[in-house]
């Protein structure tokens, strides 16, 4: 009977559990894991910083509907990935982080890169464990996967001591495991479905909010059918964009403030009443707001404000139940209602206002015109990765998404630095789709080395850097007679040269024509490209009644 190492058993277990590819950064003691993974026929994407591996793993899991995985070295390698664990938990995205650690016989002796890794991971994961016998690795991987994808998804952590990675055991002594079934799709109680519909029917100003929980649940067909059946106005959360295409006539995103402030009954589909929805509280919402809440996690129901009609279950299943109930007893929101007409009219007005910004000849350019050029050039099924402060906020209103899980951004944690890892995963999981990573210059600064990863792995990501010379705003020139303002970065940095260093194609654009030409050319290239768009250091978004982050 053949002998297998812990690394080989781990690789086979990952394959069995449906991990398509491993993102990682090699070094002691995980090298053998990456080799074993390649021998199993899986793709290994070696990145330049552990954060990118772990961000990529969670984006892969979110997009492939199962799980993504990353492998990092012990000590600093593992701690570099902890922020990404927190981000996956905050976003409710499934991922497995594997880290090498000290061999068990050397623990607590000051071993190379020794660290309390399981303890460090714990606050940021749903489950954390350590392999202590190579024969039990399949069991641990299956346990990790069950926790990551079951119920509300999240991060899990598997600690792999060096001697367990290298340890050899007889193949027939290994406790092999079957593939963990995909998560069940629990339905809501029939009475709750009826109650939710009654609550909706009693509303004068109803609003549907579509969150990224609906996207993860792959509920796009059901949610679209529901909106079409009921004629209800809806508002996508940033990563809920595309579950229903942004150009759907009932989309009232452009009238967001008014919609939130005046709705009397909101139906949350896989979206939490957290800071992104202003906690469901005045002044952003009515104080007599009534809530219908669909979530897989019962503990989320009523988490900030009371929920009148809870729907605990999977978004795809429960939206299917609602549609079936509407088939049996059809109901449509009053066609000529003042509420819907006023929201749609306001949305139209805002779109017209934006049209002025889209044509602006202002030089240096602001945000709106180059964003619109990008939006017009992107195919409908493009995957759009986006981060930055103004860049992300403004892009949310300009760049449309038409498919579910086609927009990845700084998310619930507002984490800067996620973009490069997300973009790598987006292109690996969707090799035939156009992936555009729009990065504010400050956000890009967290992980520019991943451009090399994209070039090396022939991932044709189009990186677009919106360069305003700083965080929030920059300056045209640094005044050396004074302290440098804290948010200022080197003016007019030539970020496109970064990709040129690795053999990719770079563009530097200062005018709308140059932006248009660069995007057109970049989309024809086989490899990765980087477009550096110089915008006004003081460019701003148009005035808003409430900022996105409103302090109470
Ligand atoms: P957004 O930021 O888009 O508003 P959130 O991340 O706040 O979305 O909320 C997502 C919600 O979706 C979480 O509360 C999570 O429990 C829930 N969720 C996750 N998976 C499912 C599912 N399969 N069905 C329904 N809800 C889900």
Write up this protein.
This protein has 552 residues and is of the alpha/beta class. The protein has helices at 6-16, 31-39, 50-64, 76-80, 82-91, 117-121, 137-149, 162-166, 190-201, 212-216, 220-230, 256-262, 315-328, 338-358, 368-377, 390-398, 419-429, 441-444, 450-456, 496-501, 512-522; strands at residues 3-5, 21-24, 43-46, 68-72, 95-101, 127-130, 155-161, 168-170, 206-210, 234-236, 265-269, 290-295, 309-312, 383-387, 407-409, 435-440, 462-467, 505-509, 529-534. The strands form 4 sheets. Strands 3-2-4-5-7-6 form a 6-stranded parallel beta sheet. The relative contact order is 0.10. The model has no long low-confidence stretch (mean pLDDT 96). The protein binds adenosine-5'-diphosphate.
How do the helices and strands line up, and which of them pair or pack?
Blueprint: E1 3-5, H1 6-16, E2 21-24, H2 31-39, E3 43-46, H3 50-64, E4 68-72, H4 76-80, H5 82-91, E5 95-101, H6 117-121, E6 127-130, H7 137-149, E7 155-161, H8 162-166, E8 168-170, H9 190-201, E9 206-210, H10 212-216, H11 220-230, E10 234-236, H12 256-262, E11 265-269, E12 290-295, E13 309-312, H13 315-328, H14 338-358, H15 368-377, E14 383-387, H16 390-398, E15 407-409, H17 419-429, E16 435-440, H18 441-444, H19 450-456, E17 462-467, H20 496-501, E18 505-509, H21 512-522, E19 529-534
Parallel strand pairs: 2-3, 2-4, 4-5, 5-7, 6-7, 9-10, 9-11, 11-12, 12-13, 14-15, 14-16, 16-17, 17-19, 18-19
Antiparallel strand pairs: 1-8
Helix pairs in contact: 1-2, 1-7, 3-5, 3-17, 9-13, 11-13, 15-21
Bound molecules: adenosine-5'-diphosphate.
